[in-house]
Amino acid sequence: MATDNQDLSITFTLHGASHTFTFPADATITDLSDKVAETLAIPTANQKFMVSKLGLLKAPFKDPELALASIADKRITLMGSTAAEASSVSLAAVEAAQRPPRSRPVQQKVKAYKTHDWKKEQEESQYTFTTLRPLPYLPNPQRSLQFLQRLKDDVGIKAAMRKHKFTVPLLTEMNPIEHTQSNHEGTSRTLGLNRNAGEVIELRLRTDAYDGYRDYKTIRKTLCHELAHNVHGPHDRNFWDLCKQIEKEVEGADWKSGGHSLGGDEEYYGGEEVDDHGGWEGGEFVLGAGGQGGAASTGTSSGTQSQGLSRREILAKAAEERIKRLSEQDGGPDSGSRRV
């Protein structure tokens, strides 16, 4: 813009700041470039003038004699850096180029996680209970099926069956009323039955009133007893040794603790029961002809037959002989069945 003495005032912005220089009326774009280099220390080579409606002007200018008067009323923006700034940027670029490339972090090899023990799974599918069958005519057969499934999936039972290579075609429940006998000696309840050396195993799951289920660990212990009958029929020393071994294996492999019910409070947690068939009446066990709560009469014909056996084994043997006598009175026992 021209003043009264015909000088020009040129205003431009640099990095957001406004600058105004005064030139003679005949000054050119070259004069402006020289003034910027002298005053702001921006070399001519680093200068770029953005002029509205005209475009970009930079050295070497296409028209170095362009009159400043022609652009004095236009908006002018100067882009450029001082020699020091340009040198700093260049030095930083050189240093960056000379730095060694950043090493990538070493990727650790991911080891394959062993999710399956194929041998164990194959053995568990082979040494197991092939079929589970509740009694469909009793109340809530689905609950009995869940109970049988729990026994089949029990980690202790699975471990014992794998070790001894037991395969049982059928695991089922027994009807309590069909395996309960009452006489002057008391009430006898059969807790388990093994038919034909492990072809079928029956377990007494329900309470006598059919309104719940017996203690899980007691039934599992009965199952251990019946599995021992897969190898040994009579309750002799070999049988009891194997029975105790299976019980220890099952308990040792069972990492779970406590029992749970099959639907709230319906699981039966009565007094502790013996594994073999002995009856109870009024909460007391009746194990022989000598009265409730004891074994005054064991049914053994000679004391020598009890040598080497524990009290529990003696009581079981006495109860077995008593059931045998009762069965013979009814027409003879099933020679292919082993009872607990």
TL;DR of this structure?
The chain is an alpha+beta fold and 340 residues long.
Helix-strand category: alpha+beta
Helix content: 25-40%
Average pLDDT value?
75
Strand content: 15-25%
Radius of gyration: 50 Å
Number of helices: 8
For the sheet with most strands, the description reads: 5 strands, mixed
Number of domains: 2
Number of strands: 14
Characterize the quaternary organization of these chains. Answer: single chain
Q: What is the H-and-E element order?
A: EEHEEEHHEHHEEEEEHHEEHE
Shape: rod-shaped
Distance between the termini: 120 Å
Low-confidence stretches: 257-307
Query: Which sequence of strands runs across the widest sheet?
Result: 2-1-5-3-4
